[in-house]
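Module 6 notes. Inverse folding takes a fixed backbone as the condition and produces residue identities as the prediction. Think of it as a translation problem where the source language is geometry and the target language is the twenty amino acids. Below is one complete input and output pair. Work through it position by position during the lab.
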């Protein structure tokens, strides 16, 4: 399943990039995040509780950041599993200046397996879009707190 989108952050690109590398800020912004631990070498361990139809469960997994170009872009590989199935994805995140604000764009591919795959691509696409939207809403609030 392909995912992509763009969000405008009301903060300079450098501040947005630094916040995206901060596990404390991310753990507050990620919907259902119970744990996000930096393991070193741009690797993280996570636990996320999601409760949307057949996607319900506590997913344990890992995040790996690669090809980091400060403050412009990076690749994020994510994998996690829970009782309903597994999720694996690779996403490219790009940041661009726009008059003191930052456009954050993402594009990538997400694969699901197990029971959650049975709900269909359309439902998974809507769920992914909803969760990404919640993340960026929470992330914008956290950036606002950090700059206040």
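Target side of the pair, the amino acids:
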């Amino acid at each position: 399943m392909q995912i992509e989108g763009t969000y405008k952050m009301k903060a300079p690109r450098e501040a947005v990039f630094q916040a995206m590398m901060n596990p404390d800020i991310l753990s507050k912004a990620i919907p259902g995040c119970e744990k996000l631990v930096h393991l070193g070498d741009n690797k993280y361990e996570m636990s996320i509780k999601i409760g949307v139809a057949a996607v319900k469960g506590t997913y344990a997994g890992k995040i790996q950041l690669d090809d980091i170009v400060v403050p412009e872009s990076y690749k994020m590989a994510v994998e996690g599993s829970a009782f309903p199935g597994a999720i694996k994805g690779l996403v490219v995140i790009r940041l661009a200046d726009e008059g003191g604000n930052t456009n954050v764009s993402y594009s990538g591919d997400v694969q699901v397996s197990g029971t959650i795959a049975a709900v269909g691509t359309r439902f998974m696409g809507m769920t992914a879009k909803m969760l990404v939207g919640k993340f960026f809403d929470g992330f914008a609030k956290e950036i606002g707190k950090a700059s206040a």
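Reference fact for the lab report: DSSP finds three helices and seven strands in the chain.
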